[in-house]
Amino acid sequence: MKKWLNRLASFFSRPEHLILVVLLALLVFLTLVPLFYIGLDTFTVHSAEARRIRGSQAGDLTLYHWNYVFFERASKNLFYKPLLNTMLVSLATCAFALVVGGVFAWLVTRTNLRFKKLLSTLMLFPYIMPSWTLAMAWLNFFKNSSIGGAPGLFTGITGIATPDWMAYGFFPIVMVLGMHYAPFAFILIGGILRNMDANLEEAAVILKTSRWKIIRRITIPIVMPAVLSTFLLVFSSSMSAFAVPAFLGGPVRFQVLTTQMFRTINGVNPGVGYILAGLMIVIGTVILTINQILIGKRKSFTTVTGKSSNISLVNLRKARSPISITLAVILIAISVIPLFTFALQSFLVAPGDYSLENYSTIFWTGEGSPDIASGEPGILKNKYVFKGLWNSFSLSLLVALFAGTVGILVGYAVVKTRGKRGSNMLDRLAFFPYLIPSMAFGAIYLSMFSVQRGFIPSLYGTFAILVLVGTVKYLPFASRAGINAMLQLGKEIEEAAMIFGVKWWKRMVRILIPIQKPTLISGYLLPFISSMRELALYILLVTPSTSILTTMLFQYNEKGWDQYANAIVLLIIGIVLVFNFVINKVTGASIDKGIGG
Amino acid sequence: MPRIELKGITKMFGKVAAVKDLNLVIEDREFVTLLGPSGCGKTTTLRMISGLETPTSGEIVIDGKVVFSSEKQLNLSPDKRDVGLLFQNYALWPHMTVYQNIAFGLENLKWKKEDIARKVTEMGELVKISELMARYPSELSGGQQQRVAIARTLAPDPRVLLMDEPLSNLDAKLRMEMRSELKRLHQQIQSTTVYVTHDQLEAMTLATKICLMEEGVLQQYAPPLHVYDSPANLFVADFIGNPSMNLLELSVNGVENNRWMLGDRETQLVFSPQENGSLPKVGEKVFLGIRPEDISLSLQGKTQASIYSVLPSGMETVLKVRFGERLLSVVVFGRKDFLPDTPVGLHFEGNWYHIFDGTGGKLLATGGLSLE
Description:
The complex is a heterodimer.
Chain A: H1 2-12, H2 15-41, H3 64-70, H4 75-110, H5 116-128, H6 131-142, H7 153-158, H8 164-167, H9 170-195, H10 198-206, H11 211-240, H12 243-249, H13 257-266, H14 270-301, H15 320-346, H16 362-365, H17 383-416, H18 421-435, H19 438-449, H20 463-489, H21 491-498, H22 504-515, H23 517-532, H24 536-539, H25 549-559, H26 562-587
Chain B: E1 4-13, E2 16-26, E3 31-35, H1 42-50, E4 57-62, E5 65-69, E6 74-75, E7 83-86, H2 98-108, H3 113-126, H4 142-154, E8 160-164, H5 172-189, E9 192-197, H6 200-206, E10 209-214, E11 217-222, H7 224-229, H8 234-239, E12 246-256, E13 259-263, E14 268-273, E15 285-290, E16 295-298, E17 305-312, E18 316-323, E19 326-333, E20 343-348, E21 353-357, E22 363-371
Parallel strand pairs in B: 3-9, 3-10, 7-8, 8-9
Antiparallel strand pairs in B: 1-2, 1-4, 4-5, 5-6, 10-11, 12-13, 12-15, 13-14, 14-22, 15-21, 16-20, 17-18, 17-20, 18-19, 21-22
């Protein structure tokens, strides 16, 4: 017994062991235990459902939800149709993103396209902006009056009423998500193309292979793993997208799994929503696990031997200038016009009327009058907007602080105990939240913390639960940064200080952290920006007192107060862009260099 | 004064033993090299002495003080062992200047400000880096970084100096230079030094004693020339020396007092042991070890071999000689060159030929050799 205690003491005398064990316990509690509770919740009668399920009381066990989702008359509209919609939207989005991003990547790396640098930068823009900004822009531009409200700019300028299929539902959702994720395909495929040894292609040229055959037999097979990986990432991201289908599909009742989940959990049938959440977690985890396996294999497949600059570029000849200019115009349009429409819409007193006397700053600085939007004051004078801004800001700040710090500790513990079982487990657990769709992650936290669990009181409605869910959800970004930073260091750097008896915290603060500052800072900043623009993760958990900017935007949009919504969009984009720019300048990291998603 | 004792040290990584039951005594002010191929456990041994690695079992005593004992559940941290450790990749802190790198450890040991300044200056002079104090490690050449690392290690006056392949990241010329500097330093500071290397030349030239290891097991622990002249077993014989020793597998055809007849189908040799050790039995297999420089060649007279390849380097010439079906390495000194396929005679002079046990590989006898 004493020997055993001694051994325990000597095990924990190493800080990395202590951190490892504590973090493992914490992450099991925060990622795996909630999964158990959400499973349990799918078999439980919730208080909102007591009347619906005859003769039951809240808390009873029931199979009602499973039955209702899969085997009832309502199942078709509740589950099967949204599932089909989700799959179709995700597949079409993947196809769109891959074609656009892939062709763009090829043009930039393998042809004599003009303004490559400018175009590459512009191409990242749709990804840096939150996906719902494009959706808002689409509405500003193409919405019609068939569901009530004013028509968009397009109709305002041309006088042509846009058909429903173009304004709402499947088509615009795919266009917007596709455009949002095309940069992602560009980054991944372009990266492979750029790093691929040009000799592989040149060897084929020497053997007198035709240009087309080289692309088909050599280039495409080599980029295939990247394509597959992009496909899986884009698929799982579009599947878990919430804001875009909510904005664009809502008006015509085009439902996908996420919007259904939101409706049911927020409404009268949470048990059903939890089943949908569970299902999405399973699909998401499977897809991204396949991707991880593929990435693991990819190493042995591509021979990346560094940049080879003297590759002969395909001459676009006469098409060179037209293609370059067209691309530039489209990309500028996509990145600038949305901003312009937000500004424009936010100054219109009566939506849809684009005549000059209709412009006003009432929605920015107005005091609020009872005849407009229930007397809501302009957003610069609106205490709720300021509250939301403050909430968003402090939430993201806390999330970044916690996630970043825990990320460093994860990195330290994982790298220092590398090769041991616990190290692998912590590595995987810290990455696990990444596999779970945002809204489903919000749902499991709702299910876990809406009631008292052991010594933890019910957290629903508190600011703490938002901080908690954000921290865990964005921990993967931070722990990747932490692990990379520690891996680069090598253990000797720390051991050189251990020899002098430097204490653990001093080794961290004086040696390890200062050396890896840039990488570690990105572990703080990526969670910050991501949290700033997040909607789906938080929407199930906010209450009026904890509203943040994105959820206010969602509410204004649902109420049809377009001007407020647009003004807030501008505000958020401003913050995100400024921070992304600062981060990029300071550390070289950027939201588009995150793990993706 | 520090004398280091390792008693029955074993280190397991999972189910693999990195070091097996190692017993080693390093006397005060000795310069001992731990030598062996990569993965033989030499670095692990060094790290266990430093306290960065914890042995699975055994006891380590430094200067009469038990610093580790698996039985007594005792394990002193590195800073309480009074050791200095020089890392292979120097492990200089890139965000600190040379001065800060050297001073940081002293600050941590709660030295007074003026003592630190004095010591850093002294160290700078000792390893000749006084003008570099304000620079960052990335602004230094490899050799200068090495010197800074040495200064940082020596600054707190450790009585035991541990070095882990400190010269392997330097180019050949610089390595030669630093080697002699290290030897001079050792004489100057008079600390007990343990030095890990896989480079036998380094081990031979620097050490007062070599500890040769293979797969975690001590093979031989003796002064360099002793290791060279009477290798304890086949592994040592093969590892030490460049080009390596010729090892011929032969059978014992007859043993009469001072003449052992060795041979196979094409070769017959007579070995005369210096002292009568254990006699091999007739019919047994043994290995005959011949150092390349212990074969001399003659162009006149009876010839038994022919030149296969010639690698002249000026000071010496390394040859391969075809002897029956075997190729023997031969080193001849001086400016010599030969034409391939020239017939040559082989001569064995001196008494540095070894017979190893055919099964266990243990050294059986050392003595003279002649052709039948």
